[in-house]
Amino acid sequence: xxxxxxxxxxxxxxxxxxxxxxxxxxxxxxxxxxxxxxxxxxxxxxxxxxxxxxxxxxxxxxxxxxxxxxxxxxxxxxxxxxxxxxxxxxxxxxxxxxxxxxxxxxxxxxxxxxxxxxxxxxxxxxxxxxxxxxxxxxxxxxxxxxxxxxxxxxxxxxxxxxxxxxxxxxxxxxxxxxxxxxxxxxxxxxxxxxxxxxxxxxxxxxxxxxxxxxxxxxxxxxxxxxxxxxxxxxxxxxxxxxxxxxxxxxxxxxxxxxxxxxxxxxxxxxxxxxxxxxxxxxxxxxxxxxxxxxxxxxxxxxxxxxxx
Length: 308
What we know:
Elements: E1 10-17, E2 20-25, H1 51-54, H2 59-64, E3 66-71, E4 80-81, E5 87-88, H3 90-101, E6 105-110, H4 113-121, E7 127-128, H5 136-139, E8 142-157, E9 174-177, H6 181-196, E10 207-209, H7 212-220, E11 226-230, H8 231-240, E12 245-262, H9 267-281, H10 283-290
Parallel strand pairs: 3-6, 3-7, 9-10, 9-11
Antiparallel strand pairs: 1-2, 4-5, 7-12, 8-11, 8-12
InterPro entries: Solute-binding_3/MltF_N (IPR001638)
Protein name: ABC transporter substrate-binding protein
Keywords: Signal
């Protein structure tokens, strides 16, 4: 995301104009504060530590006994706060499991999305797990260890009362989270193309909200006609609004999420090995099943697997 572009990469969605399909990307941003790893992980069997992977840890991390993991807890079901204010979600459970596999404890801290990668490079955090899409641009400054796959999805009110065409979003009121790639794409790609085609632009370059929950509420309340977000986030919002929303069109431009690690750090192969171990012992599948995001499962983890 300034962009959860910084969460995501370009996703094909939006107005088909002048013979070309515009592209959008999935992502997110926002929120601050800190917390220890969520109690939600208690529902997941604790994985055993793997000595060969723990041996890969940098000495300072190993001696500290913990992994400091940054997340922007405003992007349910990937990372968010429960009713008690605990940090929960797929990424939180995976962070706990990765740390346990490495013989450590996870200290998951809530942070503004745009501060996470700078925090990694400044050694404030060891890992960033906040629905970051693995991109070549990101790989230029940090390592990305793949663990999930997501695309961009759109949602509208149930029944699509405004007859929104997913292939033509010009002039539509679109809600997005502040700092997301979706927000950037409305401003930098969709609206310029709409102008070129002589069509009305998306008002305000999209209605931007700091929290994804506010994006969803804007659509439910009818203040906006469409919302754009990462596919698991849209799927979860549809479930949580009890039939008030529906998905619009297909999920597009699927790409891997990556755990953010300092460039060239020995933590990168350690984390990749931990994810591989969690895939093998069933913990990975259990976590994805718990949060209803099993459609995004990948079969293997790699370091720096971006294709664009």
